[in-house]
Amino acid sequence: MDPVHIFINGCSFLTDRKKEKVYTHTGLELAKIMDLPIAQSLAAGGRGNRRISFTTKLWCEKNPELAKECFFLIGITTGTRFDYPTNDGYKKWHHPSLNTTWKTFSLQRHPAETFFRVLYGYGMDIDQHIQIESIDTIIDLQNFFQAKKYPYVMYKAISDTPIIAKDVKVLFDAIDKTRFFKPETSHYDYILENKLVANMNDPHPNTQGHIEWAKQLKDFIDANNLRTI
Questions:
Q1: Do 66 and 76 meet the contact criterion of CB atoms below 8 Å apart?
Q2: Distance of alpha carbon 125 from the chain centroid
Q3: Alpha helices (runs of H) in 35-83, residue ranges in sequence order
Q4: N or C, which end of the chain has less CB nearby within 10 Å?
Q5: Is 165 helix (H, G, I), strand (E, B) or coil?
Q6: Taking all residues of the chain, what is their mean pLDDT, rounded to a whole number?
Q7: Is residue 198 part of a domain?
Q8: What pLDDT does residue 106 have?
């Protein structure tokens, strides 16, 4: 059965940016051209891949009948973000259907940067850790969707560092590339290369950057017959 709804999850690259006069996002544009109403969007700015994986699976288990009717769009974000559940109801208004709320350590923010520098001093390979954070999420969700027979497409919203470690490369090669759009690059890279940035102080897609990426995703979905699984 072809899907009749679309589910969206990711980071801020799958949300609008009204303060920068960007009133759309890739998920909304893809929903339009696939002619699928949005069942749910759980995308959240500044959050990481652990939250994407957990909240996607949680939503499916809480809404099994609706999940069966969905096409899933997942924008994998950078592995520099390390999510953790909170006990303070942080931004619960953002996704009121979820009881668990989330915050994130990021390598790019203090004091998290200091924390990870301490781990680095004890032998932590930060690049491998970042890459594993992303790749593990991808494979975990792909296995989940395959087991449930839920059609989906994934892409990288924000790139990680190049893979050098052999063990990490083995798992990267295990990703189902037929359902992963342009695994060698990211939406972030695309908007920088094509000057489709809303604000260079905090690079996110402008309206055209979302429209073009959604069109390419739609072409990829159609070329690979991804509406079914």
A1: no
A2: 23
A3: 49-62, 64-67
A4: N
A5: coil
A6: 91
A7: yes
A8: 73
